[in-house]
Amino acid sequence: MRPHAKPQPFPLDTLTVNRAGPEHLSRQLYHGLVAIIRSRALPPGSELPSTRALAAELGLGRNTIVAAYDQLVTEGYLA
Q1: Which stretch of DSSP H or E encloses residue 62?
Q2: Mean pLDDT over all residues of the chain?
Q3: Is 52 exposed, middle or buried (0-12, 13-18, 19+ CB in 10 A)?
Q4: Per the domain annotation, does 11 fall within a domain?
Q5: Domain count, the chain
Q6: Residue 19 CA to chain centroid, in angstroms?
Q7: Does residue 35 lie within any of the structural domains?
Q8: How does residue 12 score in pLDDT terms, banded at 50, 70 and 90?
Q9: At what angle do helices 51-58 and 62-74 cross, to 10 degrees?
Q10: Burial of 30 from C-beta contacts in 10 A (0-12 / 13-18 / 19+)
C-alpha cells in the first residue's frame, strides 16, 4: 500500500482582492486562484477550501466565492 501524500495547506496569503477596484470581487478571486493553480503552489488533486471557509477567511460573501469556483469549473481548472 502506498502512503498518502500529506495535504498541502492552501496558500491563502497569495490571494488578494481590492474592494475599491473596478473588477468584480469574484473575478479578482478567480484570477488569483488561477495564478495559484498555474504556479503549482497548490498541487494537482489538492482540495480548495470550502466556499464558507474561504468566504469567512477573506471576509467576502459566499456567493462571491461560489461564482469564482463556478468559473474555475467552467474553464476546466476544477473538476
Answers
A1: helix 62-74
A2: 89
A3: exposed
A4: no
A5: 1
A6: 17
A7: yes
A8: confident
A9: 120
A10: buried
CATH number at residue 67: 1.10.10.10
Q: Domain containing 31: what range?
A: 22-74
Residue 46: all three cell numbers together: 489538492
CA angle (70 as vertex; 69, 71 as ends), nearest 5:
90
Q: Which amino acid is at 79?
A: A
Position 37 in a domain = yes
Taken as a whole, the chain contains a residue count of: 79
Q: Which of 37, 23, 25 is nearest to 72 (CA)?
A: 37
Which phi and psi angles does 56 have, rounded to 5°? -65, -40
Does residue 63 fall inside a structural domain?
A: yes
Reported pTM: 0.84
Distance CA 12, CA 78 (A): 18
The owner of cell 459566499 is 62
